[in-house]
Amino acid sequence: DTKEFITELKNQKVKFTDTAGFWQPDTLLTKKALEKTAVAIHSSDLVLFIVDARKGLTAEDFEVIKLVRKSGKKVILAANKSEGRMEVTANDLYKLGFGEPNYISSAHGLGVGELCDKIAAIRAELFLENDTKWNVENESEEVIEAERSLKLSVIGRPNVGKSTLFNALLGFERV
To answer: What is the model's pTM?
Structure first.
């Protein structure tokens, strides 16, 4: 299941989509989760790709990476659970091709502020690039709020901390 919520982040509207995780290979549930994740990626302006720093990169991570790369969307890479021992290396993360990784701990709030700053900066950049996209006239407040929101999907395999990060970014427990 995906969860969506519109909120303000650094005084800017952001529509978050927390996507389903992935389970067992070659199951109907996994196939459906991948399909929903692909839809979320497609409808997003920005993808927040989360990996588990304690476990390192897995085959499931690489399945998600394929979807993200195909989309051509802007990506922020975050290595969650970075407050202690880490199996994932900076070299592994840079090899993914998503730029500088963000080391965070959603549960402890470490690096979350910096991540919010990065999301806000990309939102501002997108609004400047696509100024006409955000020009909504004669629409309801709900439509305007949705249209003027950065659409951000939180993507990653199960148990990397997507929902914990989602809640940390929102400032309250939503999922």
So the answer is: 0.83
For residues 139 and 156, give the distance between their C-alpha atoms in angstroms, rounded to a whole number: 34
Structure tokens at 84: 């202690």
Computed from CA positions of residues 24, 26, 31, 32, in that sequence, does the dihedral angle turn out positive or negative? negative
Q: Write down the pLDDT at residue 114.
A: 94
Separation in Å, CA 14 to CA 26, 78, 109, 124: 34, 18, 19, 11
User: At residue 20, what are phi and psi to the nearest 5 degrees?
Assistant: -70, 155
Q: How many CB atoms lie within 10 A of CB 93?
A: 21
pLDDT per position as a tens digit, 48-73: 999 999 999 988 888 889 889 999 99
**E strand residue ranges, 26-140:** 46-52, 74-80, 102-103
DSSP letter at 20?
P
Low-confidence ranges of the chain (pLDDT < 50): 134
Q: How many angstroms separate the CA atoms of 93 and 171, rounded?
A: 27
pLDDT value of residue 90: 92
Q: C-alpha distances in angstroms, 78 versus 63, 110, 118, 155, 164?
A: 17, 12, 11, 10, 13
User: What is the sign, positive or negative, of the torsion defined by CA atoms of 53, 30, 45, 70?
Assistant: positive
- pLDDT score at 137: 61
